[in-house]
Amino acid sequence: MKAGDCVRISNPARGAVIGSVLDITTPAALPAIPSARWTEWRTAAVRRILEQWHVDELAMLSYRWGGPPGPREVCFVALHIPGRGWHDLKRQPLTIEPAVREAAQP
User: Fold this and answer.
1) Is residue 22 part of a domain?
2) Where is 77: in which H helix or E strand?
3) Window from 53-57, 93-97, 102-106 with minimum mean pLDDT
4) Which DSSP letter does residue 102 get?
5) Is 68 part of a structural domain of the chain?
6) CA of 20: how far to CAs of 30, 44, 51, 54, 95, in Å?
7) Which range marks the domain in which residue 53 is found?
8) pLDDT in the model for residue 105
9) Separation of alpha carbons 106 and 44, rounded Å
10) What burial letters (b/e) apply to 40-74, b meaning 16+ CB within 10 Å?
11) Which of 87, 31, 98 is nearest to 59 (CA)?
12) How many domains does the chain divide into?
């Protein structure tokens, strides 16, 4: 999986959507985020959690959602745990597989 790929994202509670991989990286490659609100200890805390959960990859994904209050793009992070697969930030299981985007209808 790589940035720009079209994927089918599904979980038992919400069903499936077609989306895109915006970015994919490893915890070690995450940048430090310099800002007044994102301090060094928060960066360290995030890295500790990813290590405790044994996360080896993070993917930023997006999909189009048409529910209320209207259509919009939804973005979220998925975590890959070796031997357990992909999960959302609540550790709910996700299936992420290659997909083909359908052509827009006239």
Assistant:
1) yes
2) strand 72-81
3) 102-106
4) P
5) no
6) 20, 29, 26, 24, 14
7) 6-60+78-98
8) 45
9) 50
10) eeeeeeeeeebeeeebebbbebbbeeeeeeeeeee
11) 87
12) 1
Report whether the peptide linkage leading into residue 69 is cis, meaning its omega lies within 30 degrees of zero.
yes
Of 27 and 44, more confident: 27
pLDDT score of 102: 66
Q: Which two tokens stand for residue 59?
A: 């993917």
Q: Quick check: is 65 in a domain?
A: no
Which of 78, 61, 46, 81 is closest to 5 using CA atoms? 61
Weakest-pLDDT range from 14-28, 30-44, 81-95: 30-44
Instruction: Tell me which amino acid residue 22 is.
Output: L
What kind and span of H or E run contains 18?
A: strand 15-25
Can you read off the two tokens belonging to residue 85?
Answer: 């697969």
Domain membership of residue 73 (yes or no) is: no
Give pTM, 2 decimals: 0.79
